[in-house]
UniProtKB/TrEMBL annotation:
Translocase keyword on record: no
Lineage, uppermost ranks: Bacteria, Bacillati, Bacillota, Bacilli, Lactobacillales
Listed name of the protein: Regulatory protein
Keyword annotations from UniProtKB, A to Z: Transcription, Transcription regulation
Segments forming domain Mga helix-turn-helix: 83-161
Length: 486
């Protein structure tokens, strides 16, 4: 599911235009944009004016500039992309419908049409369009209620809020002691601390789950059946026992399906340390068997040896568990996913992309397969990196070790593995000269921060390279061997 599909028509076209401009490494002629978007010149100019007006009203430091038919996007490096998404999402009738059915569990056509100030016919058209989009997740809105497997409903809303909530919105909803407890429970079970991003991901899942506790007649049989092979898995048994004890404090009748939902989420969304994922896989099961077959395919293609790093096996486990338990995905940048200049990966060849498509085939237009192909290629990019400072760059990113390694590969490749630059995952206990982040938890950091606006593009790489060059100059290292410019 493409995120822009839930925007109003004009806003969806403006958003797709922004994706093209944001991803392009160079300025673009209006004629190029007309070809990319299949829009007329007058319509294109109208959409550019619409975005600039929305940005001005939203007090965002960003603008689409035009000079003699040359067009480019100007954006404050400190601006988070989700703030741009919020320019469009708040006026979206489809998004408001999804929020309403989540918050109140049910509605009538008459009451909701009055609340949204649209006609009943328009509301029915929006509901029909939404149900077409939700088919990918095997859920639907029927008679004013959400229908479908409970774990799929929670998964869909986790993806939706993860992509649409700003840092401030997440703080307002998730910075509550009650929602942080589940993260601490997982830390105790793993005997290992979790990152801030992992704990916030779990808190968001907890928020959604608690909203769904009061819903009656939830559909849980699909997930229970999928978890049958895990009945003797020691980590699942420990989690189920600990979580049911944790839930007993609430004055609601709970069943084992709550622990099953949490278990599937933790395994599928990079919320577990590498050693815990290895422990889970050690008990066998369908995903462990799939991983064995996948590694064999990688070895036949001479992409890996007999031993794989822990973060690789952990990430493979996450990718395969997500495919096993869940269906569907929300792609924030779907319209450009196949463009290499938008989605750069060092060391990746066309044969690698063919292997990814073979191992994760796009079944009936399921966007989750596109995301998995991308994750798998990121993993290969890390495996194929040539193995080898005084400037420390911290990567403070959502998505776990694979996302960190992918950006690290891209930056190291761009700066020609400069020996005076050390790029690593952000550690709160360390001091950095610069930080690259797609999270909003570092507003008080004393060093320069580059905020990614979504999946990394060549434009991001060039702008981060400029930041690093400035840091080298500031620390009087600019006379040392430097990386090339293109």
């Amino acid at each position: 599911m493409e995120l822009a599909a839930i925007f109003e028509k004009a806003e969806a076209n403006v958003y797709r235009l922004l994706l093209i401009l944001k991803a392009s490494p160079n300025q673009m002629y209006l004629k190029q944009l007309m070809e990319e978007t299949s829009l007329s010149r007058s319509t294109l100019l109208k959409y550019i004016s619409l975005f600039n007006e929305l940005a001005r009203k939203g007090s965002l430091v960003t603008e689409i500039r035009i000079d003699e038919d040359v067009c480019w996007l100007e954006m404050d490096p400190g601006l988070e992309w989700v703030s741009v998404i919020n320019l469009f999402i708040q006026s979206s009738s489809r998004y408001l419908i999804l929020k309403e059915v989540f918050s109140h569990h049910s509605f009538t056509i008459q009451s909701l049409s009055q609340k949204l100030m649209i006609s009943e016919a328009t509301l029915n058209r929006h509901l029909s369009a939404l149900n077409d989009l939700l088919k990918e997740f095997s859920i639907a809105i029927y008679n004013g209620r959400l229908k479908g497997p409970e774990h799929q409903i929670r998964y869909f809303y986790w993806l939706l809020f993860q992509n649409c909530w700003t840092f401030e919105t997440k703080q307002d909803h998730l910075n509550k002691e009650e929602l942080q407890k589940e993260g601490r429970l997982v830390e105790r079970l793993c005997h290992s601390p979790l990152s801030t991003a992992q704990k916030n991901d779990i808190a968001l899942w907890s928020f959604i789950s608690q909203k769904r506790w009061s819903v009656s007649n939830k559909e849980t049989s699909d997930l229970s059946e999928a978890l049958t092979p895990y009945a003797k898995n020691v980590f699942f048994q420990r989690l189920e026992k600990a979580y049911m004890t944790f839930l007993s404090r609430y004055a609601l009748e709970m069943d084992e399906s709550e622990a099953e939902n949490l278990f599937a989420f933790l395994l599928s969304m990079l919320c577990l340390p590498s050693h815990t994922m290895a422990f889970v896989l050690g008990f066998g099961g369908p995903v462990a068997d799939q991983m064995t077959d996948l590694i064999r395919s990688m070895r036949r293609a001479e992409l890996c040896g007999n031993h794989l790093p822990d973060q690789i096996t952990s990430t493979l486990g996450q990718i395969l568990h997500r495919r096993y338990f869940f269906r569907g995905d929300i792609l924030v940048h779907r319209s450009l996913a196949s463009d290499s200049w938008y989605n750069p990966m060092p060391f990746i060849k066309s044969s690698h992309r063919q292997l990814a498509a073979q191992l994760f085939p796009n079944q009936q237009g399921c966007d989750l397969m596109f995301a998995m192909q991308d994750d798998f290629l990121s993993l290969l990019s890390y495996l194929m990196k040539p193995r080898q400072g005084t400037i420390y760059i911290g990567l403070h990113l959502a998505g776990g070790e694979l996302v960190q390694e992918r950006l690290k590969n891209l930056l190291e490749n761009r700066i020609a593995y400069h020996r005076y630059i050390q790029i690593e995952a952000y550690d709160e206990s360390k001091t950095y000269q610069g930080i690259v982040s797609d999270l909003g938890f570092l507003h008080q950091a004393s060093c320069p921060i580059y905020h990614l606006k979504g999946p990394v593009s060549l434009r991001d790489i060039e702008e981060i390279a400029v930041l690093i060059k400035d840091l080298l100059r500031e620390h009087r290292l600019s006379s040392l061997p430097y990386f090339p410019t293109y």
